[in-house]
Amino acid sequence: MGALRLPSLALLLSPCKSLRLVSRPLLLRLRPSTLKPAASVSGGAGSRGLSSHSLAKEESSLPPPSADRKPSSSYEGSVTPRSVDFNAWYLDVIASAELADYGPVRGTMVIRPYGYAIWEAIQEYLNVKFKETGHSNMYFPQFIPYSFIEKEASHVEGFSPELALVTIGGGKELEEKLVVRPTSETIVNHMFTQWIHSYRDLPLMINQWANVTRWEMRTKPFVRTLEFLWQEGHTAHATLEEAEKEALQMIDVYKKFAYEQAAIPVIVGRKSRAETFAGAIRTYTIEAMMGDRKALQAGTSHNLGQNFSRAFGTQFTDENGQRQHVWQTSWAVSTRFVGGIIMTHGDDAGLMLPPRIAPIQVIVVPIWKTADEKNGVMNAVSSLKEVLHKADIRVKIDDTEQRTPGWKFNFWEMKGVPLRIEVGPRDVANESVVVSRRDIPGKPGKDFGISMEPSVLVTHIKSRLEEIQASLLQRATSFRDSNVVDVNSYNELKEAIAQGKWARGPWSASDAEEVKVKEETGATIRCFPFEQPQGQKKCFMTGNPADEVAIFAKSY
Amino acid sequence: MGALRLPSLALLLSPCKSLRLVSRPLLLRLRPSTLKPAASVSGGAGSRGLSSHSLAKEESSLPPPSADRKPSSSYEGSVTPRSVDFNAWYLDVIASAELADYGPVRGTMVIRPYGYAIWEAIQEYLNVKFKETGHSNMYFPQFIPYSFIEKEASHVEGFSPELALVTIGGGKELEEKLVVRPTSETIVNHMFTQWIHSYRDLPLMINQWANVTRWEMRTKPFVRTLEFLWQEGHTAHATLEEAEKEALQMIDVYKKFAYEQAAIPVIVGRKSRAETFAGAIRTYTIEAMMGDRKALQAGTSHNLGQNFSRAFGTQFTDENGQRQHVWQTSWAVSTRFVGGIIMTHGDDAGLMLPPRIAPIQVIVVPIWKTADEKNGVMNAVSSLKEVLHKADIRVKIDDTEQRTPGWKFNFWEMKGVPLRIEVGPRDVANESVVVSRRDIPGKPGKDFGISMEPSVLVTHIKSRLEEIQASLLQRATSFRDSNVVDVNSYNELKEAIAQGKWARGPWSASDAEEVKVKEETGATIRCFPFEQPQGQKKCFMTGNPADEVAIFAKSY
Known about the structure:
Helices cover 34% and strands 24% of the residues of chain A. Chain A is of the alpha+beta class. Strand 5 (164-169) of chain A pairs antiparallel with strand 5 (164-169) of chain B, so a sheet runs across the interface.
């Protein structure tokens, strides 16, 4: 696949400069071959990698002896271009950018520091919002008696095929099997029943950050793993209206996170009956369009009605002294969102991170030849770092001596760092730096001669980061909008789906017809979007009047 | 037990004031009867509480119809005095202060918002320190193939009796049983082996915040539960010296946290061979003296040597091109620390929290009778809150109308909030408030006429919080020091232990003699403290020369 990679314009236009050959042991650190495939993807001997490359292929794709100090748009030797094979690209990016690795148990994932730092950025934002909206964090045990799962009829139907069961504890067979939580509604209700007595105990609004386990057969790093990390909110209210308001409030928190932090223009809406959470009366969702135009359900918020409170007897005494079942919600966002970020913004060169959630916002690459130059450059670079750090910009210096500047440019591009600052001896002499944007390759993405004067530099960097943040959202929005097709017949839907697009059309047909669409096209109703076109609508399938349009798409 | 409670001096000295009878449904919210006992503590019909009170007792100990607006030193009706029964007091505090509840599976614990907030304070501090010392967070799967546990001989011996095993996944019997992690050294080494190639990959320093499972037979909330939350650090180094330095650095981080944040004067030292972690060559520990003078191991840091790297083949190529096994450490602090905080500082009236980790540092209680008074008081209280909140003081207003001020005073004392501000109509007129300290009961702990002027008030509150923080540490240190006895013979040790104290004496005897001490006295070597007395020492057991003194104590 290496042969398919085209040199970037920047590479072709810039002067050649000889660099040391990158030594093999160093490259090994970055080889994507340490990931085991979920299904056996590549059969190459010695290859256990999640990467699409076999080890042999990889070693033959070492960087050429002469590379350029200016960045090429791709990180040679590691990432399959996105345009060539989206799935291979995704797995390569995860391996090369050191986001995750497979665990020893099939379908499990080790989240590596760089990937985990993205999750931490998600946590930090949401945790504040949850508290601002009146929720407290707490922690429920992960072992749930099997009998709990069976109490809510549709819940057990939805989850029982995916359960991991503990049957032995402390060397002994257990009397009752324990479920490793796939979600916590049942145990939450068991406890709520003990804590809720009167209307004065309501609303009860909590959240927990936890790991959950679902025995998935087809796994994919971040998107679907046997164990994953998430937050799950659980609330209990005195009325249906309050629960509905809460469910809507939380899907809005997720939407804002997606737009404002992750730069993902999700579509917010309501799930169809068939796609509603097992145990909910209504599920709201944010649906994101990935780079391959498949949909990713990136967060959900459920109005549970009284389904669980009836199953578990979670009651309160209302202001009139009557016993009533509480009305509940639950809502969750998981490490799957990290996959959504990768697949929304990445390009042929690798990962591209929105500045607000990038673990490193600015990478500083010092460039020198002589010891004398090194002193000057390193001094300049250190004070740059301090200046940016003080301005709350997440900055890192790559001063390893084993790698060439060109290699570093490619590497940090592949890691998706939004901005790069290059500092060479001439820059030090001029007291200025070159600032390069990750999202715009080559010269158009570079600002030359930016003064090192702290206030000037900080202002420049901050405004560039905001521009990149806005630009990523804008780009993703255009991409989404150009790939959603309005359809008025089943044939039009089929055509849109066959082209890999999303189809939006009036829908009031039956669950059975929804299944038929899925079987015949592979697409499901992603949601009935909150934003609905004006005017009368006719179901494209039946011709009957329809209240709403639905969005159909293939999905992860 | 309620009969044993003496009214506080404050209660006897202050003028009586009639208050509404607290209605029963409200009290139900706070009753400690929702906790199930670990072992069956109380046999009262209908009582499932972890509390020492039976439900009947509880209901008969409702507050009397007239209570005082000045605080009594105990939260009537809920907490057994610590001086009467330490264990019952501990369980009562956990129930009444709503720190935790038992989960449905024996030995599991639900950490409620107030208890979880203490854990969050621990996390926030340590997380920053871990990053400052060069560690990155990441996440390993919790399911570990059973064969991994068997690879390190002493590790399997130490952990196999405590394992929870998943044997069924997705409805099918698994080919290999999966261990729900009791700790992660094995899976960490499995991954490190894939990531570490050359000396340039070292040191590798990571941490994870996670849940772990150990099938304990005798459980106690926070102190020992079937599942608990912790952080586990794991590092790999090129030399033994570096690993040793790291292990020492991390036990020092824990020590600083204990002293400076939790106000717990831990003793730092090295574990005896018998008490060393299963798989380590050396274990460092911080040992805390609880209010009943039992020792609590509050954090450990292990030098693992090459035990795991040899078992898992975790090797690197050194600067001379030689393959070597890495040298490793691991270190952990868990939710057990919350138990340590409760048992170090609490008193007969309930919990007492060090200001730096208190979820609420200042509780504001507004007091009024007429609607007119209410307006003035609530306005004053709102602006107080804003002022303190802006100064980064964690403040809460208790403005519920269902409870009397006196009830609130007792309640928030029982919850351990360091400072209380009372605001009545007269205070509003005088533009001043009364500030009461949790750690000093009655008048001596009160500051009258503190101006509401923002800068004055903030300065006063901040300095009082610092005083309380220092005072709690000082008090705990005096208590500890007056309960450690220097011993020079086995008889002296027996006497000290029989008195419930800690014994410190020179020790160079055998492991067998250590076992004998345990069997005969119930005490174990808690550590060989880093701080050692000068001069020659003779083992108090054998009379042989001894390099060090050891500390013996009964422990949790």
